[in-house]
Amino acid sequence: xxxxxxxxxxxxxxxxxxxxxxxxxxxxxxxxxxxxxxxxxxxxxxxxxxxxxxxxxxxxxxxxxxxxxxxxxxxxxxxxxxxxxxxxxxxxxxxxxxxxxxxxxxxxxxxxxxxxxxx
Length: 119
Fold this sequence. Notes:
This protein has helices at about 15-30, 65-70, 80-85, 105-110; strands at about 5-10, 35-40, 75-80, 100, 115-119. Strand 2 (about 35-40), helix 2 and strand 3 (about 75-80) form a beta-alpha-beta unit. The protein has one domain: 3-Layer(aba) Sandwich (Hypothetical Protein Ychn, Chain: A). Strands 4-3-2-1-5 form a five-stranded parallel sheet. It has four helices and five strands. By secondary structure, it is an alpha/beta fold.
């Protein structure tokens, strides 16, 4: 598989860091890399419908644009199951391109050779 996994642990609590992560994710998928953003901790909120619409860090494109461009280019979001549950985020709450998964899914991507970055 290879590709890139970006572990994003922030969203509404740090729009600057979230924006940087999504710019990198967008650049990766635009470079024809298989790109997955793993949302954990507060990052899981980014997978909830409407959340990205409220976030825009100065100097960056709106997060809603960064997220939709990433998905349209073929990127995927994997959402940490216990993290989502803690925040009352279920499958019906998710944006297009996001799936709730267990930790084994992330481990499998990394074991298959994906590089990883954390934000």
